[in-house]
Amino acid sequence: MIHVRNSFLSYNFEVEDADVVFIGVPFDSTSINPGSKYAPAVIRESLRCIEGFDSDLNVDLFERLKISDLGDIETVPGSYELTSKRIEETINSVREKNPDAFLFFIGGEHLISLPIIRVLKPDTVVDFDAHADLRKEYLGNRFSHATWASHLLGEFNLVQRGVRSFSSEERSVMKNLGDRIHGATYLTIDIDVFDPSIAPDTGLPEPNGWTFEEFCRNLEEIKNLIAADLVEFAPVGFNSPTAFLAANVVKKILGIVAERL
User: Deepest of 8, 29, 85, 125, by most Cβ within 10 A of its Cβ?
Assistant: First the structure.
């Protein structure tokens, strides 16, 4: 069963025919500063406004790719367990119809990445993030935006880039993480990996973050990307600088998909 609503495209391809499937996951129930549940709607609006033409590839990505926007999963506020089940059911339904489509998820808080990754089962998870998110529990909760990555340990090859904020507990764990990206790769992008000067609208902004150029350079490491998500954008309104940055992050990932077709 697919639990979704809304769309951003003027022409929406059927899932069966799509190169890319978009799915919004408006869940932010464990966030200290909530608001990321509004990100899917705001990013869609910015995607309507930006140009689809990619000067590096010399192609209009919005015309080149067959995109299906399924809208937003009907999340259950306050319940990670029920929301996680709906995420899993939706992915499985999409995969039954189209096992080859690239999946792009728009959060929502970072906890949404955990059920997605467990369903897709990539070889490597690359995490672009300002925070390690490797605590065993946070405020008594084992499943939160600050603990999601700890659940991947022992299951997946986790590679982190851009991390600059962590506890002493997390620092010890980080020493044992891998550094080599291999096999089928899932990319999760926390918008706070960027410097607050260009991405202020996030729950926990950290100084000394990436520029967009640094983001693009780090993307070059990834050779076999199968799916991705963008999380922790907490919009304060439509068409903000952070919203347009997020839309261009989406566009950059679409470029990767277009290159391999």
Answer: 125
